[in-house]
C-alpha cells in the first residue's frame, strides 16, 4: 500500500473515531438516554393537554406511568466525579444535597401525576396542574444544574 493511501486511511479512521459521540454504556450515555426518553414522554403528555396532540386517555395513563418510572432512574448514573463531556454544571457534584432534593421533588411530581390519572374519566383540566408540577420540576433542576 502506498504511504499516501495509508496516511489517508489513518486520518479517516481517526476522524471517524473522534466523531463517535458519547459511549452509550457510560454513565453520561445512560443518563442522556433516560433524560431523552423523559423529554419525549413529557412532550407527548404536555402536547395532549395543550391540544398539539389528540388527547388519548389510555396513552396518557401509560405515558404518565412511564414518566414516573423514568424519573427514578437517571440519578444513579451521576458518578462521584464529573465527566469532561457532561452538560451538567460543577454544582451537581458540589451541591449534592440540593441536587438530590430536586430529584426527589420530580419523583413526587411524577407520582402525583400517576395518581391524577386514576380519576375516570380523565379530564385534561384535572391533569394540567400535576403535569405543570412535573414540567416545573424539570425546569428547576435544569436552571440550577445544567449548562446550556
TrEMBL record:
Free-text description of this protein's post-translational modifications in UniProt: Binds 1 heme group per subunit.
A Pfam family assignment: Cytochrom_C_2
Leader peptide range in chain numbering: 1-20
GO cellular component: periplasmic space
Entry keywords, A to Z: Electron transport, Heme, Iron, Metal-binding, Signal, Transport
GO molecular function: electron transfer activity; heme binding; iron ion binding
Binding-site positions, heme c: 138, 141-142
GO terms (BP aspect): electron transport chain
SUPFAM superfamilies: Cytochromes
Protein name: Cytochrome C
Biological classification of the source: Bacteria, Pseudomonadati, Pseudomonadota, Gammaproteobacteria, Pseudomonadales
Amino acid at each position: 500500500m502506498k504511504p499516501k493511501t495509508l496516511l489517508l486511511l489513518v486520518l479517516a479512521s481517526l476522524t471517524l473515531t473522534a466523531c463517535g459521540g458519547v459511549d452509550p454504556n457510560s454513565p453520561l450515555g445512560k443518563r442522556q438516554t433516560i433524560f431523552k426518553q423523559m423529554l419525549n414522554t413529557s412532550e407527548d403528555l404536555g402536547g395532549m393537554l395543550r391540544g398539539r396532540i389528540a388527547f388519548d386517555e389510555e396513552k396518557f395513563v401509560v405515558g404518565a406511568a412511564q414518566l414516573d418510572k423514568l424519573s427514578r432512574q437517571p440519578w444513579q448514573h451521576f458518578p462521584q466525579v464529573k465527566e469532561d463531556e457532561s452538560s451538567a454544571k460543577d454544582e451537581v457534584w458540589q451541591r449534592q444535597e440540593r441536587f438530590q432534593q430536586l430529584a426527589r421533588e420530580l419523583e413526587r411530581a411524577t407520582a402525583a401525576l400517576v395518581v391524577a390519572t386514576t380519576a375516570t374519566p380523565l379530564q385534561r383540566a384535572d391533569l394540567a396542574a400535576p403535569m405543570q408540577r412535573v414540567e416545573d420540576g424539570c425546569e428547576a433542576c435544569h436552571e440550577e444544574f445544567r449548562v446550556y
